[in-house]
Inverse folding.
């Protein structure tokens, strides 16, 4: 336990254990609506951690992570609808597809020294032309959408991911915990220290003998592959897929806002950011509904205000500030310089 949570103080470990216990007990305490919100929060916590590997650890800005979610969604859903292949087997195909897509983008960018904002534009371009392609791909429904068969289940079928929201909640909770453990191992590994060196000063890292091309390629491929299970989860949770939704740039922005708000490059930042952003957003939505107000674009405005506040007041994110105030860490939290 001490080695696993070596960054945390005793107080931090106690708070983490209490939070985990509360999350495990949530389905017994929450109503259906709150459980749905928690599933959404955990979904963005998971995808935020996947994006954080590429940007927070290795310093490569991606604005098109919806590409990997969408590809994995369609691969797993098509295999299930057309051939009756279950989601877990489908994930074994979906993850490599996402990794290959990430490898293509990474190779084109890093081979020809495309970096910074131009790399971000490249990721957007790939996501957009993939969206257009799937809009005309009739085998998976095209713009009309792909629908998974839905029936009333008296019991949960974990093998085929068919069941009630409680089952999906525990699945996404396990995925989020697994992603956190993987990210922690990666960040503390030799490769993780290479990534951080590249993030801070790529030229200096190259001068020290670090193979920056190889390290950045691994970061992109791991980030893409780690994002893919979220796509499989999306397909079987919502049971319908539309290119305009799953590949939309707005979805990519939602993925990255959690880590930015929580703290880019930190282990707990993407999780805290997802709780804050999604939780407050849903609370605002409920408040507006209760007041009988219909404000178009309210969610986008709220996200913009949160981002502006963090950029101005907490440029390192909320998690480093919380960690210092609550004294939950033994040493300084890993921070990415703006």
């Amino acid at each position: 336990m001490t080695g696993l949570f070596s960054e945390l103080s005793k107080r931090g470990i106690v708070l983490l254990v209490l939070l985990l216990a509360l999350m495990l007990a949530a389905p017994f305490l929450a109503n259906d609506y709150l459980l749905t919100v928690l599933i959404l929060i955990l979904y963005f916590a998971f995808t935020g951690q996947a994006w954080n590997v590429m940007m927070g650890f290795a310093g490569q800005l991606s604005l098109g992570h919806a590409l990997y979610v969408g590809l994995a969604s369609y691969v797993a859903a098509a295999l299930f609808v057309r051939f009756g292949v279950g989601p877990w087997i489908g994930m074994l195909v979906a993850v490599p597809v996402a990794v290959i897509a990430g490898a293509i983008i990474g190779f084109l960018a890093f081979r020809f020294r495309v970096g910074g904002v131009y790399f971000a534009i490249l990721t957007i371009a790939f996501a957009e032309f993939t969206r257009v392609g799937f809009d005309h791909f009739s085998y998976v429904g095209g713009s009309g959408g792909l629908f998974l068969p839905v029936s009333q289940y008296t019991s949960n079928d974990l093998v085929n991911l068919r069941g009630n929201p409680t089952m999906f909640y525990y699945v996404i909770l396990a995925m989020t915990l697994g992603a956190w453990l993987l990210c922690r191992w990666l960040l503390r590994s030799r490769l993780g220290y290479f990534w951080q060196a590249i993030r801070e000063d790529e030229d200096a890292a190259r001068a020290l003998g670090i193979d920056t091309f190889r390290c950045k390629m691994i970061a992109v491929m791991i980030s893409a592959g780690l994002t893919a299970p979220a796509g499989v989860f999306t397909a079987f949770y919502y049971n319908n897929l539309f290119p305009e939704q799953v590949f939309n740039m707005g979805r990519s922005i939602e993925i990255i806002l959690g880590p930015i708000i929580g703290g880019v490059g930190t282990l707990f930042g993407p999780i805290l950011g997802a709780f804050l952003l999604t939780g407050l957003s849903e609370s605002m939505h409920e408040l507006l509904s209760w007041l009988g107000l219909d404000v178009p674009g309210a969610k986008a405005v709220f996200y913009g205000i949160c981002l502006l506040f963090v950029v101005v007041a907490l440029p390192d994110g909320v998690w480093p500030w919380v960690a210092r105030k609550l004294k939950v860490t033994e040493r300084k939290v890993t921070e990415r310089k703006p």
User: Anything to note?
Assistant: The chain has one domain: 10-326. The domain at 10-326 is CATH 1.10.3470 (ABC transporter involved in vitamin B12 uptake, BtuC). The two ends are 32 Å apart (CA to CA). Residues 212-238 form the longest helix (27 residues).
